[in-house]
What does this fold into?
Amino acid sequence: MLNNRKNISTILGLSLILTGTAMASVPNTPGPYVGVYQVTDTSAHISFLDNSTDEDGFKVYINDANNVFDATVVPNPILVPKHDTADLYQYANITGLTPNTLYKLAITAYNSDGESTPTLSTSQNNGRLRTSPPVCKPLMPGEYVGTYNITDTSARISFKDNSNNEDGFKVYLYNYNSGVLLKTLTLPSVAGVGGYQYKTITGLTPNTLYRVAVTAFASGCGESNPTHSSSVTNGRFRTTDSTPPPPPQSCPLKPSEYVGTYDITDTSARISFVDNANNETGFKAYVYKYGTSTLLQTVNIPAKSGVGQYQYTNITNLTPNTVYGVKVSAFNASCESNTTTPSSINNGRFRTQP
It folds into this structure.
């Protein structure tokens, strides 16, 4: 009798386990492809394949860009009743979304036994959607942003207004090299569609490269896309250097008019002259065939001695038995003095030997 009771208990236990196992049957996961289309600024239409026959319906979970449940969307999840027809696809509308926002969808099938595993959003239009910008969002200005009237601490910009519904514009100023946002300026809308807006940016650092991005904005609609700085004078500029340039040097005085000529050979001669300046970088000796304006060579002579001292140089590569004239000047970075004038043999004029 005791053995019979044990057998009956074992049979009943197995029966309950088998019955429980048969009852606990959750539906298959929908999809896996979740189509996303007819996307607007606040809504989208989706479709997915029904892979079960025992579901009571479906749940569409709306997650943010980080795949975290988004409680700002109501209702969430969206309950989709089963739709048993020859069309194996299920459809749902999602509303109450935020414009220009990325969402990720996870869809399950459910019945009284529980929920299936969720679908995975893998790409744009497959369980992943970005709502469009608000319908009232203004158009991007420009896109050319002129930069001009640039000083060491300021610059003026101009751009074209392409919208008729903006409240104003925002000018974002960045350090071009580091990308750091330095300041944001707000401009009222004054030009109208097709007109130009202007703004002078002040408080800049000398000799620094900047870039400017401009948007149009409207209350409740957000900002347009920003302009792109593409080149110098188009949204990009460098302030000038605030260091004043050195004052220009005065022209050095012309060397003394007398230019001695001696040690003359058939192909060379030596000249000398008195240095009359204290601000020259050097001297130039211009060698002509005498009586003509044809310049044959220029000899550069570095400054070696002070005012009243003699300078010397050799002139070579001359032609035998030829009369030459030499003119000498002093020069610096700013200018060059007048030249001496050959006046006689041994004074800037000489004949090479045969």
The radius of gyration is 45 Å. DSSP finds one helix and 26 strands in the chain.
